[in-house]
Structures are given as C-alpha cells and as structure tokens.
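Lab notebook, design round three. We kept the backbone fixed and only want residue identities now. Task for the bench partner: fill in a sequence for the structure below.
Input structure tokens:
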C-alpha cells in the first residue's frame, strides 16, 4: 500500500510564489517517476511537471521558466516551486507516483488547492 501526502497549497496573489510538497510512503521501489498534475473546473487533468529518480524532468509549456520540480530520493519526496503565479494556474494540484517497469504502479494523492487571485 502506497500513500501520497501533499502539502503547500493555498491562496496567493498573482505574481506570488508557492511551494508544494508530496511525500510517498509504503512499498516503493526506488526507480520511478514522481510529478504533479492539475485540474481546474471543466477541464481535464493535465501534466504540470514530472521528474524521474535520476533527475530527468519534463514540464508543461505553460509553466516552463516559472515552475521548478525537484525531489529528494532519500525522503521519497517531490517538490514543486511555483513562481510568478498567474490566475490561470488556479487548480487542484495532484501528486503522482508512477513506475512503468515491473512491479508497475500508478498512485495519486488527494490533491491540494492552489488559488491565484488577480
């Protein structure tokens, strides 16, 4: 059983910053991808940023240059530093843990609300 616990969401003015954290616990194999997705009302869930155990990253075009993803493998924790936030970044942000090699798994956190006011 794997659990993902997120923290760091909240309300911020446009141009401000927030830092999200997500810690995974349970039976975790050390080769995996952790990341963040977001979903706003009426829209599909979309990728924000992901990072592999080795540190390779992938970002959505809309957040490149503003968001930075990082991870601490010793703590099974992934971070998302969000700078220069915009109202369109408002969404529920979900942490994800995925492993595509056997044993395969894909887990989601419960989500944390990020609201950016204009």
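Proposed sequence:
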């Amino acid at each position: 059983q794997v659990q993902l616990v997120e923290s760091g969401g909240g309300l911020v003015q446009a141009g401000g910053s927030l830092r999200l954290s997500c810690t995974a616990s349970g039976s975790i194999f050390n080769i995996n991808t952790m990341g963040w997705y977001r979903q706003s009302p009426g829209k599909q869930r979309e990728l924000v940023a992901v990072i592999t155990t080795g540190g390779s990253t992938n970002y959505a075009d809309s957040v490149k240059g503003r968001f930075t993803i990082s991870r601490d493998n010793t703590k099974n924790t992934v971070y998302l530093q969000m700078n220069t936030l915009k109202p369109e970044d408002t969404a529920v942000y979900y942490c994800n843990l995925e492993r595509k090699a056997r044993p395969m798994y894909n887990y989601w956190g419960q989500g944390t609300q990020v609201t950016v006011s204009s």
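Keep this in mind before ordering anything: The chain has a mean pLDDT of 95.
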